[in-house]
């Protein structure tokens, strides 16, 4: 896929099965999708090849929404879906670009290594912005999976 790319590699103290569930179960996804100052208000996911997802979140710049289609669903190691912004405030209008997100999960001792990749973004600035948002979302996921 052409365009800018970001990749985040993290280790979580949770099994690949638990991680895969957190990435596919709407009741869990709603708790961690979006950057730290955002709250998901709607989320639907039909997790199967050809199935779709959509979500809406609200944060400091306003309301934003995105959606996509699942391309690969191989529990508990691989999940691939497209990503397209569908709504946003005036400062961040949807750009019509479809990117691809891949979650690669592998057992790592008593935990899981997540390799998160988003590719096909139009510019490196957008990739950097998405990387910041996804890093904050993964911090929220870690707090759910590894409560203190």
Based on the model shown, name its key terms:
seven-stranded antiparallel sheet, alpha+beta, 7 strands, Alpha-D-Glucose-1,6-Bisphosphate, Chain A, domain 4
Description of the structure:
The chain is of the alpha+beta class. The chain has one domain: Alpha-D-Glucose-1,6-Bisphosphate, Chain A, domain 4, CATH 3.30.530.20. It contains three helices and seven strands; from the N terminus they run E-H-H-E-E-E-E-E-E-H. Strands 1-7-6-5-4-3-2 form a seven-stranded antiparallel sheet. The N and C termini lie far apart (39 Å). The model has no long low-confidence stretch (mean pLDDT 95).
Sheet/helix structural class: alpha+beta
- Categorize the overall geometry: globular
Radius of gyration: 14 Å
The tally of helices reads: 3
Percent helix, as a range, is 25-40%
Largest sheet: 7 strands, antiparallel
Mean pLDDT: 95
CATH architecture assignment name: 2-Layer Sandwich
CATH class: Alpha Beta
CATH superfamily: START domain
Can you summarize this structure?
By secondary structure, the protein is of the alpha+beta class. It has helices at residues 16-24, 26-32, 124-145, and strands spanning 4-12, 39-45, 52-59, 62-74, 78-87, 99-108, 111-121. It is built from three helices and seven strands.
Which secondary structure elements does this structure contain, and how are they paired or packed?
Elements: E1 4-12, H1 16-24, H2 26-32, E2 39-45, E3 52-59, E4 62-74, E5 78-87, E6 99-108, E7 111-121, H3 124-145
